[in-house]
User: What shape does this take?
Amino acid sequence: MLHTAGAPSPPDEMSCEVRLSVQESVQEREVLPYETEATIGTATPDQPRMASDAEFPDLGSDDLENPHYRDERAWVNGQIDKIRRMPHAPTPLIEIELPRQMVGLKLYVKNETDHPSQSHKHRLAEALFLNAFANGWLRSDGPVVEASSGSTAISEAWFCRELRMRFIAVVPKGTAEKKKQAISALGGEFHEAPGAKISAEARAIAQKQNGHFMDQFTYAERAYDWRGHHGIAAEVIDAVDPDWFVMGAGTGGTVTSMARYARYTNHKVRICVTDPENSAFFPGWRDNDRNAIAIGSRIEGIGRPKVEPSFLFPLVNRMIQVPDPASIATMRVAADRLMSPPGASTGTGLYGAMKILHGMRQRGETGTVVTMLCDPGERYADTYYNDDWLEKRGIDYKPWLTTIEQFLDTGAWNPPTIWTAPPVPTSILWNM
Assistant: This one.
């Protein structure tokens, strides 16, 4: 009832086609987009900068206008105004009815598929555009470029269509055709590259074509207006004032904005990040090691092979590492209990929310837990909802179905004692 308020696995579309070691992938030097945009002639400690006649024909001049950027203030202001005039209706909160044994406890799912681009990345895309416009990074004659294989690319393509800007997504080789088709349907272009290289390739394309690399991994928590009244934190806290907010992390921007807003407004909500297998976030947070590395994640949209800049350890109160079969089983059960089938990252978050509720009940606590419906399950009809696809990857979710169903029906929490863990992938997983 709903109320609205191991053997190696074969390569798949979320894997690189080339075999790279984790070390090679995650320790590749990443440069912020504008640190080296005009590096010719830049001084170093052991090599002072020498101005050339070609650069400054009028030697001795100390009065120059910016030769690298045009001040397109009228165009920028017009684009920002278009974004500001877009509707900002709060997305609905769905209450999942808990069994009578859970009296005093409530579970809500924030339905982010109501956004025009159908995922919670719509908020991130809006924030990235406003940030880039305000910083003078976007130009009328250059493309917007992003490294993404999924919802972020689709959301940014939607904004580019509305703003009449060219969009290029750099996606990992092997990305599912449905995702590439979704980008193309919104007028975007895509360029394929080995998964571990998509950020470097996106940056190179942006520089070559006089465009801007959005770089969601670096700028997510910086771009988010976490004080804003139409942000997800304000919508959730003002509606139900939860005790816990639970979701997986891809960039870390959403959980960061929730935690900041709670501290800024003196609210009680604590943050639990549910992390899938093979992600660097859980061991990094556990060991307080921002250099932690891993293979990546099978659960699209969350989990990373390295700790991203926007994932801030101090703002996370608790982490739960969720087995991939449990994420998919929870997603499958939720498909029958929500208004629309969700993706697997929603399953990861919902699994953690139920585990927290079980612990609250065991301690005799009352309160509210909120998680998120991140994107629609139709994007995963050929993957997580396809039993043949799962079987080929050694993912048996069926032993976990009873655990999830029993909890939602009786409040009992009985994870399977025997289940088969999927084999560790042999190549880097890149699925953002």
Remarks:
- The chain is about 35% helix and 10% strand.
